[in-house]
User: Fold these one by one.
Assistant:
Number 1:
Amino acid sequence: MNFIKVFVNLFQFNRTNWKAVVLCFLAAAVFWLFNAFNKTYATSVRFPLRFDYNQERYVPIEGLPHEIYVNVSGNGWDLFRKNIGFRLPELIIPLDRPTEVKKIVGSTLGPLLSNQLGGLQINYILNDTLRIQIDDKDSHVFKLIPDVTKISFRKGFGRISPVVIIPDSVTLEGPKSLLHDMADSIVLQLPARVVDESFHEEVEVFVPNNESLKRNPPVASVMFEVGPVEVVETKIPIRVAHLPASVKSSYIDSVKLSVQIPKAQSNDFHLSQSTMTALLDMENKTKGTYTIYPQIIGLPEYAEIISLDSLVVRFY
């Protein structure tokens, strides 16, 4: 009966009693924690990873693995600090010939990484395989070509000057294999828009594999003048080139042409029509029937072809 009274009195609301109880629990918890952390444990830790290679000569084609999972054994304190991110070492994999290495089997990394973990011991690598793609660094100049097909104009308006790009080329730096697989020019995609005044806009130089390639410059200025225009239809005489003397042929003597011109150039265009011809190049043609679009010679720079008739030419 006396024991029950003592137990009840202990938990009665008394600040002195409660302070003693709390201090006892804290002391026990601290003792247990220190005792537990001084033991050896095994756990899996995610370490940051870096590949060491000559970055002046080589560049990754794709993003390289940036972390590795390792099962390690060690003192509880060390493992606790590693798991919450304190003093987490960056593991380094050296690559003497980076272009020759395509994959690294995880099980082979133990000896290489063991001396980089401080007091921890590697049990095994959880990553099965690290795949990497590194290539020689190269640079190449590409011509910029504007795509104005998405630009439309208010009725009676149109482009009255050539499209100007500043600068007219871009230098790309990156993996050699990617650069050599690209065409010699890059198309600038202009945004869809209806305009009735001069166009001037900064357009991003977009290329595939953008993360692997460094652009210089990343944007280009695209500009052209817009003004009143008219469509003119005319007939152009045909001139034949490289027609074999031993081959007979038949075709019409003129071709129908529709062009869009600035209204301000209307008189000049009518004067220049007398010097325009439609060229049919028959080089390397054999007997047969061909449908050919002629090349317009002498077309003024300000004139834009809207439609051009094809010609049927028969050799016999």
Number 2:
Amino acid sequence: MTTACLAPDALQFVCTLVRQRSAIELDDAKAYLIEARLGPVAKKNGFTSAAEMVTNLRAKPNQTIQQQLVEAMTTNETSFFRDIHPFEALRQQILPALQKLSLNRKLNIWSAACSTGQEAYSVAMLLRENFPDLCAGKVQILGTDIADEVLARARAGAFSQIEMNRGLPANLLARYFQRKGLQWEITSNLRELVSFNKLNFIEHWPPLPTMDVVFLRNVLIYFSPATKRQILEKVRAVMAPHAVLFLGAAETTMNLDSSFVRVQVDNQVFYKLK
């Protein structure tokens, strides 16, 4: 495949399409990243270059390829127990407090923008290890993402050796994974705790249960302030009064949504509703 660079108008077309479909903000400074991610999409669809694919899309819009293009622009960086502090907060403060509540429903934990599922499965392992009583039909973990391809991988629950080496303790690997060829597969006692659905933050949301814990980590950084406010408003609407929200280390609700208050316990930071 050739590596023809995108012309400025073609690059603008891609940025506009991605913004319209996902609200993710791209600009000329990310031209190299954009072209690198478009290459595999172009090859998959029989084009000799990303430039040729974009030219073709501008002349003959194709919904399938456009969706693949948008999905290619989403960042799917994830790992097991990524940035351990939120999981420590969940284990030490949040879940013990939630256990004391008398709820007439399951506890709901949401991994938003879940990518290939490592965050959701990490929560499931934490529950199995530390709160076995909750795993007896008292908790449900939901993972959502905009991209069909990563959701398919999350549902499959199969990971490469490289993915397993990123953040997963050896004792948990032995307890919750089985080797299948070149990959490791999640065991059924984790899989039964987790479900995955498609959700685009800027489109109509499917019905969601009342959430007790929301992981929205390293997501808001890709959106404009106005879109961040819209997302936080929607997230707030599905949170229980006692619920907690985890954001990425570089993210905050400050100057975006005054309904949240920041809570810090040692190195562990989360947000609660006022």
